[in-house]
Amino acid sequence: MEKRVLITGASGMIGKKLVPALINKGYQVSMLSRSARPLPDIRVFLWNVENQTIDTSCFDGVSAIIHLAGENIASKRWTARRKQQILDSRVNSTKLLYKGLASCSHTVNTMISASAVGYYGDRGDEVLTEISDPGDDFLATCCISWETAVDEGALLNLRIVKLRTGFILDKATGGLPLMALPVKLFLGAPLGSGKQWIPWIHLQDMLNLYIHALENSLQGVFNATAPAPASNAIFTKKIAQVLQRPLWPIHVPAVLIKTIMGEMSAVALSSTNTSAQKVLNTGFNFKYNQLQDALAEIYL
Question: Mapped to the 3 state alphabet, what secondary structure does 230-254 carry?
């Protein structure tokens, strides 16, 4: 029997690398897209989250859905309209998947969904486990609504896994290139107090974790972050060391960052000290446990 997985958000940072990783492991991959585009080795089906339409033949032969769809939280300034788009893209896409499953016969038994460490809000030095209370800012309330929508899959008897994703390290995409650019230009300095915790994970470990969740009996919510989070000051220092660049002996004032980024400054200034113990308890082995090793693999 073939192993078929349906992926949403396949063109995003994780999806672009996860699709070939799954194919290399012998999986058949289907994907949902707003536009029909022939791709080698992948079956493409149409959906429109805004209009709540989906081609339910996308579920044919599928045993698991990996749900990565969602607007990029850091690509545009957070106006009221943009925040609604960020929320709706996650919640309404999940509702559409479940509406489609409820309307047809299918073989889907697993739902693995992205979530985010933004669930916890700005928590200082508090060690955050999966049972820690959520925060109350925009990202936290967005994650709460997102995860609540995902949990509705229990009514369809699905095994549900939610991965609260941290700061993903990749050379070409995501936040690391933006963080490294000032350092490369000899303008590097910690942001705000520099004490805020960054719960990072190497992209390869992120891919491996999705496959681990797919192939094992994981259930519930997990922090998808490496075991050793680093403060913003240490993170900036490690980037400078790997790139062999000096740092300025100052910090970029938080008030300046808030002035430039507005409410979105929470992405740079919030402190999220997550624990990876729960995912470690499942037998998952991180390839990159230490930030220095992760950055060295990326830049050296």
Answer: EEHHHHHHHHHHHHCCCCCCCCECH
